[in-house]
Amino acid sequence: MPNKPIIGVTMGDPASIGPEIAVKALLDQNIHAICKPLVVGDAKVFQHIIDKLGLQARIHAIQDVKDAKFTFGEIDVFDLQNVDLAQLQFGEISAMAGEASFRAVEKVIQLALANEIDGTVTGPINKKSINEAGHHFAGHTEIYAHYTNTKKYAMLLSEDFLRVIHVSTHVSLRQACDNVKKDRILEVTELLQNGLKQLGIENLKIGIAGLNPHAGDSGLFGTEEAEEILPAVEEALRLGYDVEGPVPADTMFSKAATGYYGGVVAMYHDQGHIPFKLSGFKWNAEKKQMDSVKGVNITMGLPIIRTSVDHGTAFEIAGKGVASPDAMVLAIEHAVQLAKYKLAEKSAVPS
């Protein structure tokens, strides 16, 4: 693949599975075939996980993107030098780990805004750790929005046929209900269609979920469908979008999982996340661990590319060598696809 994009991958929380899945993903030759991967974090942490797990990789610590080698088996780390290994404990919340994970995100955003890299992929962070470090954000999405000065953005989840965007995410359920407004639904519908196009999805049919059981059942169980969701659907149709709704959520996702919809709009965090993770996360009851964790989180509306694994820090298995890199591999692949689209779009604009 000529002109392979440079993809910055953050360390995630150093006490989590983040460093492990980053190393494992970068030891996949297919990743090097499609991009030039660069890890952002503390080089000592990556060397520690390599030594602890006996992974066949070398670390190349750098302070400038131009010094990266992008050689398979030798992992380029933009070294922030901000973790004290003597204090680091796998699976534990700490301000030090929160600070290190936050600074990796901050740096990868800076590199992307400066056009030194073509896309960013984030490893899992612990929200309590970053807040203990003094950074009061609800998650990655809000950090990116703040540092890129983005006002209109949304979380898009992608795995196989299932692509889900959210009207709201990290707010209380009570507040999420209040956030179901016509203008916001239209906004995320537009972001979803843009995302589908950027991912190369040909099916642009969009399902828009109801908020209440049975999509309100003609007003018996709530009025949000009639007052906010249906008017948004009608306006979207008028604007030329291929939308359907409000669709009862308990039937919409079963259709979406088979490819009936190119993507769907969920009204709040768990309405979208539960079916999504049921599809992509495979729990092994005998081993009492995940066999596979698939799913990519994309932040739509940003001026830069950001994808992420859609799982947490998995503190309970950190440092044990059993973490699956599947989601990280998928997140990098999605970032590459988005970077290719952005490059093609830029090339199509007359100079």
From TrEMBL:
Signal peptide: none
Matching Pfam families: PdxA
EC top class, as a word: oxidoreductase
E.C. numbers: 1.1.1.262
InterPro entries according to UniProt: PdxA_fam (IPR005255)
GO MF entries: 4-hydroxythreonine-4-phosphate dehydrogenase activity; metal ion binding; NAD binding
Keywords: Metal-binding, NAD, Oxidoreductase
Top-level taxon of the source organism: Bacteria
UniProt-listed PANTHER family: 4-HYDROXYTHREONINE-4-PHOSPHATE DEHYDROGENASE (PTHR30004), D-THREONATE 4-PHOSPHATE DEHYDROGENASE (PTHR30004:SF6)
Protein name: 4-hydroxythreonine-4-phosphate dehydrogenase PdxA
